[in-house]
Amino acid sequence: MKRYGNLWPQVIAFDNLLQAARQAQKGKRFRDNVLAFNDQLEIELFQLEGELKSFTYRPGAYRTFKIRDPKPRLISAAPYRDRVVHHALCNVIVPLLDRTLIGDTYANRLGYGTHRALKRFTGWARGYRYCLQGDIQKYFPSIDHQILQELIRRRIKCPETLWLIDTIIDASNEQIPVIEYFPGDDLLTPTLRRRGLPIGNLTSQFFANLYLNPFDHFVKRQLKLRQYLRYVDDFAAFSDDRQELAEARLAMEEFLETLRLKLHPAKSQLFKTKQGANFVGFRVLPDRIRVRNDNLRRTRRRMKVLQALYAEGEIDLASLVQRLQSWEAHLKHGDTYRLRRKAFDAYTFRRKSVMEEENSLTEEEEYGS
Fold first, then answer.
1. Residue 361: is its pLDDT beyond 60?
2. Are 322 and 309 in contact (CB under 8 A)?
3. Helix axes 80-98, 41-53, angle to 10 degrees
4. Distance (Å, rounded) from C-alpha 154 to C-alpha 148?
5. 27-53 burial, b if ≥16 CB within 10 A, otherwise e?
6. Averaged over 309-336, what is the pLDDT?
7. Other beta carbons less than 10 A from residue 23's beta carbon
8. What are the distances in angstroms from CA 228 to CA 124, 245, 252, 272?
9. Cβ(234)–Cβ(166) under 8 Å?
10. What are the residue ranges of helices labelled H in 171-289?
11. Which residues contact 76 (CB under 8 A, 6 or more apart)?
12. How many Å separate Cα 2 from the centre of its chain?
């Protein structure tokens, strides 16, 4: 097993920090904190470089807020300068650690994503009789810091880089409470072990993929379930043998306990594929692919947000068209022609100044002459 050392010079190199700043600002460069950072870009980057070289860098406080997507989630936004550090770290370690992942894990990986996962899932769902679908209960809040750090140390031996990784993990803010007991625990174990990663971090997204990597290899190599894929904490395995999947589920639950994780009791099911299955926002049926209702609600929310942003002049026409085309391309992966036309035809996009002018003209016609 190859372990990587001497990574620190690459992480703290000024060119890497500059590239990280450009990556971190994508889609956010007109926000006040980004503008302030970019106004003193060289000074800010030299300061970060100095703090990293002297090991005095300390992450700032998170800003937290809740969303429904569709279930309630706690999102944690790190200060912008910390996000630059996250990108700088990931630029170096992700290409090295990504190659250890199986080919059928699709989240947060270059060239992968939901659409490629959906295609793979659909092919297997229509080629096999049974599906075992699993979901990890409270996944991000349950990720155990000690286990994660040990997994990373299996591949990275550079002490300075490990210091930065530990600093980022240890600075994770409190997530929703998770009190679960596992074999060997005493009464206080769940309260003493640190766990939970903030969903909003770039590093958290990659570490979440890495955390389940041993589980993926266990399923593929030891359980020999070749038709297996995962997207973040949602996974599925397919077979024509129902008993094979039933026995596999018990083995999966035992292995997940070594990672201090549990399957969601309601969302983890074994069923016939002809019944249809939900995956990455779509419902896959034997003869068609539909969009799930929560995906439709998300579409309507996005359209209303885009209406407001365009009306206030916060996005230009080119950006608006790009976002609409991107979202339509996502929906096109299902059998959604009528749905897309109905959804997009229901909204109009106009600048606020144009709407005010039209309202003014209407008033003149009503009260004039």
1. no
2. no
3. 60
4. 10
5. eeeeeeebeebeeeeeebbeebbeebe
6. 77
7. 16
8. 9, 11, 12, 16
9. no
10. 189-192, 202-211, 213-217, 242-258
11. 62, 63, 64, 173, 198, 199, 200, 201
12. 27
Q: In the block, which residue shows the tokens 């990672």? A: 259
pLDDT digits (tens, 9 = 90+) for 187-225: 999 888 999 999 889 999 999 999 999 999 999 999 999
pLDDT computed for residue 318 by the predictor: 80
In Å, what is the CA distance from 20 to each residue of 13, 171, 201, 237, 254?
Answer: 11, 20, 14, 37, 40
Kindly report the number of other CB atoms within 10 A of residue 256's CB atom.
Answer: 20
Looking at per-residue confidence, does 85 or 314 come out higher? Answer: 85
- Say how far apart CA 313 and CA 350 lie, in whole Å: 9
The one-letter amino acid code at 59 reads P
Question: How far, in Å, CA of 104 to CA of 227, rounded?
Answer: 9
Listed in sequence order, the residues at least 6 apart from 345 whose beta carbon sits closer than 8 Å to its beta carbon are: none
